[in-house]
Amino acid sequence: MIKFTDVSFRYNETAQNVLKGVNFALNPGSFHFLTGPSGAGKTSLMKLLALGNFPSGGRITLLDKDVETLDRKDLCSLRQKIGVVFQDFRLLNHLSAFDNVALPMRIQNKPENQIKEHVNELLDWVGLGEHKNDFPPTLSGGQQQRIAIARAVISQPELLLADEPTGNLDDEIGFRLMGLFEQLNKMGTTIVIATHSTQIIETFSHPCLILQGGTVHTPQKTNFIAKKIKNAT
Hints:
Helices cover 37% and strands 23% of the residues. The protein is globular, with a radius of gyration of 18 Å. The protein has a single domain (2-26, 46-186), classed as P-loop containing nucleotide triphosphate hydrolases (Rossmann fold), CATH 3.40.50.300. The protein starts with a strand and ends with a helix. It has helices at 42-49, 72-79, 97-107, 112-125, 141-153, 171-186, 198-203, 222-232; strands spanning 2-9, 19-26, 31-35, 57-62, 65-66, 82-85, 159-163, 190-194, 208-212, 215-220. The chain is of the alpha/beta class. The relative contact order is 0.19. The strands form two sheets. The protein has a six-stranded mixed beta sheet with strand order 6-7-8-3-9-10, with helices on both faces. A four-stranded antiparallel beta sheet has the order 2-1-4-5, covered by helices on one side. The longest helix is centred in the last third of the chain and has 16 residues, at 171-186.
């Protein structure tokens, strides 16, 4: 599903590498947390996984495709199989909550009656059914985050990437959304969640990848990782 081979990344030719010598492989249908100290490069790694950036060196294989060899059409096709929740949400302010969530299904040319059913059901599930006609600027940060999550999962992507998806949410909503991620995972979606939350990591028993010193350490037990995060912060 995902394989990084000696991957490095820097933002420009004169900058230092944010990532260096990153090597790991994740199986299809797996669920991993990505964690580590602030500034370790978690967001940079997530952008590589989301095909928002490309490596400065090394090789990335994603959904059995060598990223470096893909043309523009194949990249677009691959991106449609990936659901992404970024920290800045990246909602379209001129679209309603409903239309933001519906966007991936419309790109895939799904029937409008199917879109209406699925989007309304998911918005109700995340507690935003009454706000489906509201526009992102009128909503709180937590509400916008839930819209971004709903948009990322609506088409049941093969790979779901979420960067601090519970960061602006209260515990009840955060744990409810983690339950949604686990349901998707049981249906076959491979999931990678970047998080600082020791509570989330300790509660949900999925292996962790530690990003530290510009490289990724292999999956380890969640309780051990939670202690390392507390010590690092």
